[in-house]
Amino acid sequence: MQSSPPSPWSWLTPFMAWLPGIGPAELRADLVAALTGAIVVLPQGVAFATIAGMPPEYGLYAGMVPAIIAALFGSSRHLVSGPTTAASVVVFSSLSVMAVPGTPDYVALALTLTFMVGVLELALGLARMGALVNFISHAVVVGFTAAAAVLIAAKQLKHFFGVEMDSSGHLHEILFEFLKHLPEINPAAALVGLATVLIGLACRRWVPRIPFMIVAMLGGSLVALGLDQLFGAARTGIVTVGALPSTLPPLSAPSLTFDHIRELAPVALAVTLFALTEAVSIGRALAARGGYRIDGNQEFIGQGLSNLAGSFFSGYVATGSFNRSGVNYEAGARTPLAAILAGVLLMVIVLLVAPLASYLPKAAMAGVLFLVAWGLIDRAEIRHILHASKRETAVLAVTFFSAILLELEFAIFAGVLLSLVLYLDRTSKPRIHTRAPDPRLAHRAFSSDPELPQCPQLHIMRVDGSLFFGSVPHVEQAFDQLRSQHPERKHLALVCSGINFVDYQGGQALLQEERRRRLEGGGMYLIHVKQGLWDALERYGCFEETEARNVFQSKTAAIRAIYQKLDKRVCAGCEQRIFQECHPS
What we know:
Blueprint: H1 24-52, H2 57-61, H3 65-73, E1 81-82, H4 85-95, H5 104-126, H6 138-155, H7 157-160, H8 171-180, H9 187-206, H10 212-231, H11 233-236, H12 258-290, H13 296-312, E2 319-320, H14 322-330, H15 337-352, H16 362-376, H17 379-388, H18 390-405, H19 408-427, E3 431-437, E4 446-447, E5 458-464, H20 472-485, E6 491-495, H21 504-519, E7 523-527, H22 531-539, H23 545-549, E8 551-552, H24 555-563, H25 568-572
């Protein structure tokens, strides 16, 4: 029984694909991951909002409703949307030249920008432009993930070791800044961070059923509390997250005036491309780790609806968060319900227990993020790529070092561009083999063994690859080289079973070669022409009456017909006699 085609409105209910399958085990795992994610976003949301030039509470608001909507309408099981460092930096750099950060005018611009980004993302998703994600190769995803993990860890050095330093910028800038502050390391904070990491590792190894991240955070907090009790808080200097605002996101409205839309249009387009690239890259990275696939179109739609909702619930631009998504994956989330519950729990936490965040050390949070970063680096896959392919290794390296030394979003573009360049280079040089009958094989099948004798009048060539404008020069060069090295072989048989596609320029190259050989007293013949190739050559006008008669669907028929056209005077003195037709009964 055939399944019915998907409804054109199925993009409105993607959650129906996973919601009915949730059982007690899934609910339990997702609840644990949600609680972990909700706790992690508390200090991060405030920090991200500060980076973006927004009031601190807006970072928490951006992790509530937008995260829930993105999980409901996206396709990734583990992607968690919300405020991110990169998105916050982009927002600040774009809007700070238009208004004073933190002011009502600035907030209005941020809400308007969020609305416009949502509209563009939704439009791209509905236009089925999610196929753009197919150009992000696996090596790009692995390299991008590893680089982001290194940056996550580097940006937490200040909190892990309790030093006051600027953790913005690229990796080398962060490390150089950290080296300058080595004498200022707080031993108590470092002890708390180290204890958090060790407790998390021990829990994950020996008690894997218990959520190790929550245990690690609680353990680090208890160590900090013990140090404060033993030596005094003033002496230890352990910095905590501090009390957070305990309010739900109020309703808001973007300013959709013509002036604001015109002013923000270029920024909105740039932020949209960056946000989608970041979200889909993270989604693909986690999908590869989880053994499933994401729908790029649906992910675009989910991100668009997320930002549209965020603009009306006091959120600024949200996209896929590497920190929260990594935490969600490592904490054992199984379905998007984990991200939905995390948004709901964040609201509850902000209302009820936000003041308790004053007991959570920043060093403990940094230790947890160290664990997340280590888990995100797919060391086995990196080793596999390094040993398997030089091309993929180059893509991996370019993506990784671009992210480390330049910008995360630029790293993705650089990796994709290099992937395309290497792909075009490979497809522009189709493999070309010389073929000849092999008496060692059954029915004297054709082989590419270079030691096999060749016919002095006929050359048999096989092309494996498409004939398009990019590959035509390579194929024409092979034709010219054959003519130069073996001018006596005036006949050319082209085995076309490896040619799947030909464009106008490729068809004309075949036609010109046939005409040239005919003028030289020979000919060119096509063997095993697929229907698609035949249709394309006919459509491009590459078949005249003579050429059409030189197309064969079997090698036996081709050799029999070509043999009749060979110079029998040369055949009489030939010692090779490689074809059965050369041995008349």
